[in-house]
Structure formats: C-alpha cells, structure tokens
Amino acid sequence: MRAVGLLEKGMKVPCIARELRVSEKSVHQWRRVWKAGGREALRSKGSSGYDCRLGPHLQAKLATWLEEGPAAHGWVGDQVWTASRVRTLIGRKFHLSCSVSGVGRLLPRMGSVQVPARPTAERDEEAAAMWRDVTWQEVKPAGRRPGHGSASRTKRV
Q1: Which residue, among 54, 51, 56, has the nearest Cα to 97 in the 3D structure?
Q2: What are the tens digits of pLDDT across the range 11-69?
Q3: What gap in Å lies between CA 24 and CA 134, rounded to an integer?
Q4: How far is it, in rounded angstroms, from Cα 106 to Cα 54?
Q5: pLDDT at 113
Q6: What is the per-residue DSSP string for the chain?
C-alpha cells in the first residue's frame, strides 16, 4: 500500500524499491496488480497453500463418525483415534487422500484433542513409588559439587 501511495505521487520505480527495500520487480508487479484491480486487488488473500478439502459440512460428518468410536468403523483393538486411523476413515468415507500430518492439523481445528480419559489400568503406584525412592536414587547421575566454580569449561577457577 505504501508503494501505491508513492506511485500515485509520481515517484519512479527504482526510488520506491530503494525506499521500501524491495526489488524493482516487486514494485512493477504491485503496480500491474494495482492498475488492473485498484487498491483492493493488493489486499492480502491470506496464507498460501490449498484450503482443507473437507468443508464445514464434511467436517461435521467426520465429527459424528469420530464420536461413534473406532470400533464402529472396524478397529476392534484399542479404542483410540490416531491420525493414521482418521486418515484411513477419511479415505474410506469421502474418497479423499490426505497426509497424516494434515489430519494432525485438521483435528485440533475441529476441536478434537486426544487426551487419555483415565490413567492406565496396569500402573502400580506402589511399585512406581518404590522405584523412584530406591532404584532411582542409586542410578541417577551425580549432581554438581558444592562450592564456587566457573561456567567456562576452559577457564577453571
């Protein structure tokens, strides 16, 4: 927008490029877009890249299927939705291909966050406390020696 303001004042492209610390090519490009569509054409259109191929109505369908749980869709082992499983579900239901990382970014936008509902059933609190109090004390690395010292490895005190 500053470049357009300077163009409107009649300033030359090389001077604008120098003042704004951009290339002359950028200023030429902005001038072309501005002449074709006005200032509105220069407004940011958001981040680049393609939009999520699952629109709001498809995301709503996916959310209802996720609420049904993995067993309803063929996973009988552990009842946890993973990004890989959700990716497979999207492929089966919508015939769309997406990456596991893309699904990992989609789920939080939909409000879905994987957190354990309860602690693991196999955890033995007494054994964990015993290990922490006895075994860890024996195997943990020694701390720093008390006294004055230097943070430098090459310059000792």
Answers
A1: 54
A2: 999 999 999 999 999 999 999 999 999 888 888 776 555 556 788 899 999 999 999 98
A3: 70
A4: 9
A5: 66
A6: -HHHHHHHTT--HHHHHHHHT--HHHHHHHHHHHHHHTGGGGS---SSSPPPSS-HHHHHHHHHHHHH-GGGGT--SS----HHHHHHHHHHHH-----HHHHHHHHHHTT-----SS--TT--HHHHHHIIIIIHHHHSPP-PPSS---S-SSS--
Six token digits for residue 146: 């008390």
* Distance in Å from the first CA to the final CA of the chain: 59
| Number of residues assigned to the chain | 157
Q: Exposed, middle or buried, 74 (CB in 10 Å: 0-12/13-18/19+)?
A: exposed
Position 146 scores a pLDDT of: 62
Per-residue CA distances from 120 to 116, 125, 130 (Å): 9, 11, 18
* More confident of the two residues 151 and 18: 18
* Dist. CA 100–CA 103, nearest whole Å: 5
Structure tokens at 119: 């602690």
